[in-house]
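the two lines:
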Amino acid sequence: MSYSFDFTGLEQGYDSLLEGLKVTVELTLAANLIGVTLGFVVALLVMSRISLIRTPVMLFIEFFRCTPAIIQIVWFFYCVPIMFDVYLDSVTMGVLALGLNLTAFNAEAYRAAIQSVPKEQHDAGIALGLSPFQRVIYIVLPHALRSALPVLITNGIGIFQQTALVAIVAIQDLMYQGKSLATTTYRPIETFTLIAVIYFAVSFPVAQLVQLIERRREVASR
Amino acid sequence: MNKSMSNLSSAKSFSATDSTNKSPTASTSGQALVKVSNLHKSYSPTIQVLKGLDLTMAAGERLVVIGPSGGGKSTLLRVMMGLEQIDSGSITFAGQPYITANDGKAKTKINLAVRQQIGMVFQHYTLFPHLTILQNLTLAPRKVRGESKASAEARGMALLTRFGLAAKAGAYPNQLSGGQKQRVAIARALMLDPKLMLFDEVTSALDPELVAEVEQVIMSLAEQGMPMMIVTHDMWFAKNIASRVVFCAGGVVVEEGPPDQIFNAPKHERTREFLDRVFHI
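prediction for all of em together
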């Protein structure tokens, strides 16, 4: 390798990188809040017997699953304001785009989990006089949350990486700050290596958490 | 055993129906707790499970339904609990029709207020795995009836104590044995003060050594005069707890009568065949 790494000079950017990381984490948390809650509702809707409800929701899911996230972000940032005459700040738009993207993926995870709730659990709920809504809240949701949890966390980590895309619409996240640092220091390779390490350092422990949950579940089901 | 049980039950809150206990087949519609009329149910055009089933049960009776698999026993209980749609017929509880077929394609009509006077225990425990034992008991009273947490928990603890499960109140279902789970399931149903209990093969999934503890709990309910309808393959249990036995096959009631008569002197060839096969003597 003929290139010699030189990290000197990057210290000046530490503060702005930290600021960027804060924005990235906030975006991730906000998107996950949307994805985890709305994902469940969307999963219920897409399982509806009424095709008038099911079809549009299915299209929503497939749109977000079958187009690149970067296009969704650009589209939200440029097209939504023009088409719907809604002007929101870029962070809100970023959160919405990421949140809805995550909603679509989480909805699929929830759907699989909901379908895995044993029929007997529904029967018991009916026999105890719980209304359909109460059965969803007190029986189906806890079941679904539990069995979907590893996938939800994995999707959540995925969105943490995807937040890097919002840098192109001038949200000052970790990626954005890294880009500016690279320009000011003329050290792009070192800068991007550094922010890659930061993304990794945050994601890795959370990913380990998924393995821990799955291992515990394996033990419990024995 | 059987005679003493009848006496016990009729001595308590169901003394008005004393006579029906002694002559079980003479139950009249005036006193009937449950009246099933001409029940038809099919799972598909080719699979017809109930083919015009008629059944009357007086208050204070303990009806045991026996018969071959696929004969409609469990389906009958599930229909009574509102878990299945029916094609035609109706079921009356304490004089009120609460399950009626809508002719044509529409769904079965279920009067929920009436149906909620009936409790059911299933073969596979069906406890909620994410709730503790006590929470399993208090969920429905609190959410369905709006009972306070304190009141529901007090009643729940009283029931658990009675069933010897007080120490397990804070445990989760997967920490319990099958027999314990099934006793909790019975307690959970009792929390709603049912006027009739349905037991659908509640000991079939249990290890043999755990069957007795569950049957004892059901016996103790019987002694307190709880009307019940039991589907079971355990003929010993059937003999001991039944005030009347119903033999169900091919989607209809083939024969019914006191346990002595059904088990010792069945009238129908089909009943004899079934019992011969069960006892394989």
